[in-house]
TrEMBL record:
Gene3D superfamilies referenced in this protein's UniProt entry, alphabetically: P-loop containing nucleotide triphosphate hydrolases (3.40.50.300)
Protein name: Cell division ATP-binding protein FtsE
Keywords of this entry: ATP-binding, Cell cycle, Cell division, Cell membrane, Membrane, Nucleotide-binding, Transport
GO cellular component: plasma membrane
Database matches in InterPro entries: AAA+_ATPase, ABC_transporter-like_ATP-bd, ABC_transporter-like_CS, ABC_transpr_LolD-like, Cell_div_FtsE, P-loop_NTPase
Organism, as annotated: Halobacillus locisalis
Entry superkingdom: Bacteria
Family: Belongs to the ABC transporter superfamily.
Oligomer status and interactors: Homodimer. Forms a membrane-associated complex with FtsX.
Its membrane topology: Peripheral membrane protein
Biological role: Part of the ABC transporter FtsEX involved in cellular division.
Amino acid sequence: MIDMQGVYKTYPNGVTALNGLDVKIEQGEFVYVVGPSGAGKSTFTKLIYREEKPTKGTVNVIDLDMASLKQRSVPKLRRQIGVVYQDFRLLPTLTVYENVAFALEVIEENPKNIRRRVMDVLDQVRLKNKARFLPDELSGGEQQRVSIARAIVNYPKILIADEPTGNLDPDTSWEIMHILEEINETGTTILMATHSQEIVNTIRKRVIAIEDGMVVRDEARGEYGYEY
Ligand SMILES: Nc1ncnc2c1ncn2[C@@H]1O[C@H](COP(=O)(O)OP(=O)(O)OP(=O)(O)O)[C@@H](O)[C@H]1O
């Protein structure tokens, strides 16, 4: 599903964020990506949805070779990958329903399918009753659930969550984790970059630790392994 071999990434300012990274992730896995700030976690996830290109090395995602992927094929790749950010990134003037429907409207799904699918995912994240609310009428946890609904509305094969609980209190964070686990149970591969020792050590999954742009640890049911 995701295969990176000998991957280097140097940004135009000369900073080397990835330094010979090797990673293989199979369909249906749930993987935590941990490591110190600046280690290269976000850069690693950005290579997967082609937000960034590698400087050197091979990156294969869903059987597509990122080196030869044409710019016009990038939207097709992105339809198969959902992304959730720490800061939600909802459109503030659109309702919950519209924020989620937007992702389907841009790919010209038919209106009847859109309605059914949006209500299904809002049900999945337990927000059906808030479909008409605006983002700033919701709590942080609810906003994150909308952003998860938006990310999965297209049935993506991969869901990338970059510190999805970074702005949330502990109770709300557990709620988000249970929703991510339910999504994973339907076969979606999940990659979650996190600094939460408590989550990683409680809901045990594969842990990939990145330091200085390299994988320094990869354990099937790993631990967080840092003191911060
Ligand atoms: N667009 C960019 N241009 C230049 N340098 C960048 C860019 N994005 C990241 N970097 C640098 O690359 C290195 C790795 O950053 P990255 O965001 O991948 O780390 P991270 O592990 O996700 O950190 P954090 O846990 O703080 O989010 C850092 O030194 C960062 O300053």
